[in-house]
Write a structure and sequence with these properties.
Bound molecules: adenosine-5'-diphosphate, magnesium ion
Number of domains: 3
Radius of gyration: 30 Å
């Protein structure tokens, strides 16, 4: 949406790592985003109709959503609360006074003839989202967040002669979150959208489902010579996957660079990303831009609430990803990267914490991130669907830690628990998987292996590295159950090393 002109400040120092090398020297890309996030709410912004995704066409439509004459909008308090919650999660200014405006335009899927939105006085002002790219933390400024209605959907592919209109989405609450032009690469833009989506999911204010359109990005892209003023931007509308966001930016930046290097100029315009071809195409130029004739909606009073209410909402905020990450690093001694992987989804972090409580945090992180996540990815399962519970994984780790089983047997045990379920300690007991630490038993096997290989036992005296071969033989003879450390020590003693 076109917001009132704001002063744009360049907060970043040009970093050669982000430069795009052109034929005539380096270029820098500048990106700012407008994200539309559908508010998680049962009902719509100004009506009691269901806001649920899908449903048969025109079954989630009240008289207000269909803009029947004389119908009046009534603000949904819960949607307002969700917007405030989101503003708090973005560390943003909450405006206890804001105004709903009419944004006028004609389109068949907009029965009112205008969209109710917030223009000059949004509910949320400036805030910050921190992203991490290549181990560096970057602050991306938030310009504003405002509430507005979604439009309906036009359907053109059902009939050769007719278009249909489905108003199920009409009037659903959206939060438009506008960033400052603080991003300098496709990587940063992708990191920003993922981080924002994670924050919204933690807050429970948007499900972040990009395929269903609950989160869509308008991407503003311009290029310039490093150190120069911002260039003219193009806006790429409605990109609905993180991968496409990266592709659209890379294509668009190169397109603009090619034009400028040929001596041309960039026209400010709205473009569309064609995900099949990987290109952006012009949709309309600035001259064709609508004049929306914004004015305050006379059917709605300004939106006001108290600071006390804001504080009540603040008190219910969950631990957010940045704080959770810092805590996991401190409490469990995790590396920054591992902690980031775990906090990307609150369910992952919860699972990890159940496993790690009272255990070796790094070992737990290793098992959760490498073994469990790897296995889940292979099967296309989410953490909620994991056949191995946090309790079971914790017990597997305990068995390794106590020396009852080796790490290698631990992986076999994990496989058994994954496919058959059951109590890890009992499985180890019943299937005789326990590591043999009893030296007498190991000694017997060591003696047998040495006796069976007299040549090698002679050769190892000059080539001590060959001891590894003997360790392998003993491990094989004990089906991997001998304690490798004990085997090694005994072998060295018996072979006179
Ligand atoms: P409008 O309301 O006309 O779309 P705004 O000033 O509100 O314009 O900016 C919309 C988005 O465009 C914001 O996310 C902002 O950060 C971004 N933006 C503004 N100028 C530039 C620029 N030169 N290059 C890239 N993005 C920009
Ligand atoms: Mg815009």
């Amino acid at each position: 949406m076109e917001a009132p002109a704001v002063e744009i400040v360049d907060t970043r120092t040009p970093d050669p790592k982000n430069f795009i090398e052109g034929a005539t020297g380096p270029w820098e890309v500048v990106i700012g985003m407008e994200i539309h996030a559908q508010v998680l709410s049962k009902a719509k912004l100004f009506s009691g109709a269901s806001a649920e995704f899908g449903g048969d066409p025109n079954t989630h439509v009240s008289l207000v959503d269909a803009a029947m004459p004389g119908m009046l909008p009534v603000i949904n308090r819960f949607c307002v609360e969700q917007a405030i919650r989101t503003g708090l999660g973005l560390k943003a200014q909450i405006n206890t006074f804001s105004v709903f405006d009419r944004k006028n335009y004609f389109y068949p899927d907009l029965p009112q003839g205008y969209q109710i939105s917030q223009y000059k006085q949004p509910i949320v002002g400036e805030g910050t989202v921190y992203i991490e790219v290549d181990g560096e933390t970057i602050a991306v400024g938030i310009e504003r967040l405002h509430l507005e209605q979604d439009a309906g959907k036009s359907i053109h592919d059902q009939h050769p002669d007719y278009s249909y209109v489905d108003l199920n989405r009409s009037g659903v609450a959206l939060m438009e979150i506008v960033s400052k032009p603080d991003m300098r690469s496709a990587e940063e833009a992708k990191a920003y959208v993922s981080k924002l989506r994670t924050i919204l999911r933690y807050l429970g204010t948007c499900d972040g489902n990009m395929e269903q359109g609950s989160l869509r990005a308008d991407i503003n892209v311009s290029v310039r010579r490093p150190g120069e003023a911002f260039g003219t931007r193009c806006e790429i509308k409605n990109v609905n996957s993180i991968r496409f966001i990266g592709q659209a930016i890379e294509y668009e930046a190169q397109r603009q660079i090619d034009i400028l290097e040929d001596g041309g100029t960039i026209d400010q315009e709205t473009r569309l990303f064609d995900s099949r071809k990987g290109v952006t195409r012009s949709m309309r130029s600035k001259e064709e831009a609508h004049d929306y004739r914004y004015f305050p909606d006379p059917d709605l009073l300004p939106l006001t609430f108290t600071e006390e209410w804001v504080e009540e909402i603040r008190a219910t905020l969950p631990e957010l990803p940045d704080e959770k990450k810092a805590r996991l690093m401190k409490e469990y001694g995790l590396k920054s990267y591992d902690a980031s992987v775990l906090v990307a989804d609150p369910a992952n972090a919860d699972y990890f914490e159940q496993v790690a409580k009272g255990r070796d945090g790094k070992l737990a992180a290793n098992w959760v991130i490498n073994e469990l996540f790897g296995r889940l990815r292979k099967e296309g399962l989410s953490i909620m669907e994991s056949p191995v519970s946090a309790e079971q994984l914790g017990k597997i780790i305990d068995l390794i830690k106590s020396g009852d089983i080796s790490g290698k047997i631990g992986k076999e045990l994990f496989e058994i628990v994954w496919t058959e379920g059951g109590d890890p300690a009992r499985i180890v007991e019943e299937r005789g998987m326990k590591q043999v630490t009893d030296t007498a038993a190991i000694e017997k096997v060591v003696d047998e292996v040495i006796a069976a290989n007299p040549d090698k036992a002679e050769a190892v005296k000059n080539k001590p590295n060959m001891v590894g071969w003997f360790v392998g033989q003993v491990m094989k003879a004990t089906q991997g159950k001998a304690n490798p450390k004990a085997v090694n020590e005994l072998l060295r003693k018996k072979l006179g090393l």
